[in-house]
Amino acid sequence: MLARMDGRDGMRAADADRQAIADRLRVALDEGRLNLHEYDERLQRAYAARTYADLDDLVRDLPAAGAVAPTPGAVPAQRAADGAVSASDGAVDRTVTVRWLVEVWEPWLKTVGIVVAIWAVTSFASRDLLYFWPAWVAAPWGAILLVQTVTGLVGGEPRRWAAERERRRRRRAEKRAVKRDRKAARHLPHHGRRSAGGTEALADAQGSQHDLGHQATEPGRVPQQPEGNA
């Protein structure tokens, strides 16, 4: 965790600080300390964080980077922790697999449901059981998806799919953060120009008043009046 100092919590965080926290969250995900839902939620909060306090809250329950290895007396506890991490990894794998299966089969299920509904309505309208033509849609497509499912499960496709999905979400979060920073940066120069213009106008006015006062104090010299008042 980043070192604390007085007044640090309220200080604005930089892009490098947000990226450092994002890297720590990724390590925690790889170690099984966070599941995919927790990682995604914290990653979005990391790129939207404004202060160091917002970033520190995201890793408060995670061990510091480069933590010291446990002592020999802590081996049983470490083994228990390893067992818990393994169980957590298994739960994450099952969740990822289910999501991947839904992603693969959802279009097929929706399409087959629609064509079967059309077949059922037409059969009911004709008062006769029509030829089940939806099988020509469901069978070839389903066979292709079945082969894709088997080869994907054997080759670890659910994990790669989840990692790619997380990368896309991360890029979207980074783009949102960049747009927000650019929007804030566009307002700052405009405000600075207005402030600079006001300062220059005030300086010109003070200089004019000083010149008039200097002319009035010189002996034998009549102060000049502005042309508009002549």
From TrEMBL:
Pfam families linked: DUF1707
InterPro entries per the record? DUF1707_SHOCT-like
Which residue ranges are recorded for the region named Disordered? 165-230
Tell me where in this chain the DUF1707 domain is found: 11-63
Compositional bias (Basic residues): 167-194
On the tree of life, the source organism's domain of life is: Bacteria
Q: State what protein this is by name.
A: DUF1707 domain-containing protein
- Which organism's genome codes for this protein? Micromonospora gifhornensis
